[in-house]
Amino acid sequence: MNVHKPSRSSVIGTGTLAATLLLTVCGTAGAQTPPTAVDKATTATAAAAPRSATPRCTADDLAATVQLQNTGSAKNAGSAMVMLQNKGSRTCTLRGYPGFAGLLANNRSDRLAVKRVPHPGPPMRVTLKPGATAFAGLKWTTCQKSDKTCHVIAGLRLTPPDGNRQLTAKVVGLNGQAVTQLTVSAAGLTTGTLQPTSQGVVFAPGS
Question: Model confidence over 84-133: pLDDT tens digits?
């Protein structure tokens, strides 16, 4: 029986073809770079864009007014409506609760306890165009000036949500006249959430 033996040239040709295919496959695999780092960078940029599109409101953007609704005649309970107006030229956002400190007659700060309650609803994002206002409710229990734990304050300082700078609020009565003295018990203040409208933000008497 005749056995066919491959010629030397066909063996060499086959080997050359195999080597060429191996180099091609290896070269292609080496050229493929996992795009993980690029994808992460792109995702982070896309996720951050909506947040930076409208900046949060800072103390420099805002003017604060605290309008008293009740000075304490009903069950020694005081209440007020807090108004934060965008006085700047850019649109900004607020979300959460304002912070407070008392303002003494000598212009020094008086530290007050502040309790936060989701009234009239949970925190929500409030977008303020120039001239627009956000609202929140504020309440406290009054006290006798002779009580050593009583805070006798001439005004209020306010910190916007997530801010670290205070602004001095204008405190007025329902008649629009300035109020220069408030008494706040050791229990301090209770504040509600900032809302886009004033509806429902004032705490009901006795609440």
Answer: 999 999 999 999 999 999 999 999 999 999 999 999 999 999 999 999 99
Specify the pLDDT at position 173: 93
Determine the Cα–Cα distance for residues 39 and 59; give it in Å rounded to an integer. Answer: 37
Q: How far apart are CA 35 and CA 42, in angstroms?
A: 11
3-state secondary structure of 88: coil
**Is residue 138 helix, strand or coil?**
strand
Residue with tokens 């690029």: 38
Per-residue model confidence (pLDDT) at position 206: 74
Structure tokens at 144: 């006798």
pTM of the entire predicted model: 0.73
**pLDDT > 60? residue 163:** yes
Of residues 132, 50, 54, 135, the one with CA closest to residue 93: 54
Q: Residues 200, 141: contact at Cβ < 8 Å? A: no
First to last CA, the chain: 111
Cis bond leading into 120, ω under 30°?
Answer: yes
Confidence of residue 51 (pLDDT cuts 50, 70, 90): low
Q: Where are the beta strands (DSSP E) in 54-108?
A: 62-74, 77-86, 92-95, 99-103
Across 58-79, b (16+ Cβ under 10 Å) vs e yields: ebebbbbbbbbbbbbeeeebbb
Q: 3-state SS string over 1-14?
A: CCCCCCCHHHHHHH
